[in-house]
Design goal:
By secondary structure, the chain is mainly α. It is about 65% helix and about 0% strand.
Length: about 190
């Protein structure tokens, strides 16, 4: 069903309502693999039209992202959640997930889908760098370092000065750490 839903271009309203309501019951199944498949299918019901409202499917995914006991189910939900200004705060908060793999994926995959880090408010960027660079797991620290030294630098067309300006070096204590990490990992620029 999940595979079919991702490949359909349109669906009858009655069928949509029937499928969606039945999938919602599967989201609360006791078995994580069943919930995982339900999440994958529900994700195809999102309408990412950039509007001012979050779709019912996206609302359900937000609840799953925050509350499902299975890290795999939370990971699937956050990876498939539509990325817009209304869902973005919930996506960013997953950088504090209890599961280190989920935290790493936020830095290594999800934040790259934001296209440009400058769309993230500066206070949120500071939080992300603080959480990522000071994470207890080395894999999360490495993913944060790679995000900073490669992706974010590419976002500013390899302009180191603009990157430093965007990091608000004079206003944040984590910015000093970020600059040190940047200089240690990008010796080709220094």
């Amino acid at each position: 069903l999940s595979h079919l839903m991702h490949n359909m271009t349109s669906i009858d309203d009655d069928l949509y309502k029937f499928l969606f309501s039945n999938l919602l019951t599967r989201v609360y199944d006791k078995e994580p693999p069943v919930r995982l498949k339900a999440v994958t299918c529900i994700a195809s019901f999102q309408n990412d039209d950039g509007g001012e409202e979050i779709s019912e499917a996206a609302q359900k995914l937000l609840v799953i992202v925050q509350n499902d006991p299975s890290p795999e189910v939370r990971r699937a939900a956050v990876l498939q959640l539509e990325n817009n200004k209304l869902t973005r705060p919930y996506i960013l908060e997953r950088a504090r997930d209890v599961n280190s793999t989920n935290r790493r994926i936020i830095y290594s995959k999800v934040l790259k889908t934001f296209k440009d880090f400058r769309t993230i408010p500066s206070n949120e960027r500071i939080k992300l760098l603080t959480w990522g660079l000071r994470d207890r797991e080395e894999s999360v620290q490495k993913a944060t370092t790679k995000l900073l030294c490669e992706t974010w630098l590419q976002n500013v067309d390899n302009d180191v000065m603009e990157l430093l300006e965007r990091l608000k070096v004079m206003e944040s204590d984590i910015s000093e750490t970020a600059v040190k990490v940047f200089l240690e990992n990008r010796k080709d620029i220094t």
